[in-house]
Amino acid sequence: MVQIRLTNTRTRRKDPFAPIDPADVRLYLCGPTVYDRAHLGNARPVLVFDLLVRLLRHVYGDRAVTYVRNFTDVDDKINAEAQRRKIAGSALSLEALIAERTEETIGWYHADMDALGALRPDHEPRATEYIVQMVEMTRDLIAKGHAYEAEGHVLFDVRSFPEYGKLSGRSVDDMIAGARVEVAPFKRDPMDFVLWKPSSDDLPGWDSPWGRGRPGWHIECSAMSAALLGPHFDIHGGGIDLQFPHHENEIAQSCCAHPQAGFANVWLHNEMLQVEGKKMSKSLGNFFTVRDLLDRGVPGEVIRFVMLSTHYRKPMDWTEAKAAEAEAVLRRWRGLVAGIEPAPSPAPAVIDALCDDLNSAGAIAALHELAAKGDGAGLLASAHMLGLLMPDMGSWAEAGDAAAAQIEVLLAARLEARKARDFARADAIRDGFAAAGVEVKDTASGPQWSLAPGFDPEALSALVRARGR
RNA sequence: GGUGGGUUGGCGGAGAGGUUACGCACCGGAUUGCAAAUCCGUGAAGACCGGUUCGAUUCCGGUACCCACCUCCA
Rounded CA gap, A59 and A348, in Å? Predict the structure, then answer.
């Protein structure tokens, strides 16, 4: 069996991956807060974990992997959006407005991630479905002396957990010295964080031993991972920005609630996304969602390819140039594998690259080499390993039947003109193809065509009409 | 101020203590009515300063610059 190696944030090393139970490899990815469309940065951990899950299933078997990704549907941003709709005159109750907002956002999220070829996780728990478990875990943490109640809040006592800060390499004292922590008067220590907080009447809330309230952000992942994967599982991940405080706090909660379990063995964090060399932000005007790109005609497969062409632990720069290059490569490859059945297994070079800390860029290089050798079957099987060249994701690269028929007619006319040595006429058709976004290649076995990025069906029709004159 | 990451050829982007990464672009050749595509081939690199070593772009130390996190954030 091949050996997978992964860089573990906890150990700061690339370690051989050894599952707790090879028959049930368990992963948890921190999912989105469902208050708005997913932006491009949200897609990165999804694609990294998608690749990881595909690799784990390849190595350990399709049924031997359990992949959990949550939806955070308790959040002040969701509440704010619901309140905005209420103020705007909605007749629905606040609870109904919140449900409406989260439902539609989850629908968008599924549609957008599906478009990128990301497999759905085995479980997609919502925070609101696990309030009971969160309350129970909070109660347990108080009983074990790791949390305390103060003014309707329940706070985690960071000083009760000596390991606090280990994941992110910080010490509580250093962080306090940084003087950027919010000091609430009822906290024993400025770094203590909220497990439960009171809700006013205009906010969603649940009954608890500490009154009507709602959970803090971090407790949901501790409660849901324990419920679905158990207190000890294999891999936990997300963006590097979650390393602190979110994952640090999850570790504190889970390890204190289940002292012997160990929580997640491997912590996997992806670096952040940039756009044209700059941080993606609303203020810089370079902020966009996955849907924005899809609507602009950038195929999901192209987004996926660009994302995978940079190693997950490096900052990834989204540029128009990369998208154009990716599109050209995918068109060429799709042409190469058209009508070919995939080989029985992916190329060893591709598996080796992926096993080496998910070296997707190295795997893509190996795909290039397969393509250069003309090994279409190997290319197809190996690309499938990366979720590329999938049969159901190629419609963007294909012409409709009508366009195909028109192109065939024009190709026949050009051939006729060339036979008659009427090169002016033949070249006019060729130029027309180029203008319409149809790429024609004259090969030894006759002309082959494909669609270029700017394909224009109108221009093609006009070309057919012009030929009649 | 604290923590972590980065700096590779024209551009993108990997691995490896010594042997071509790979892709795009460029250049030369084959091919073509001329092209495009394709094929063959050439060239081009590792921020800076030290150290270890027979040998470092790869390991170690320092400097500079960049980025992220430390506050909701993937």
Answer: 12
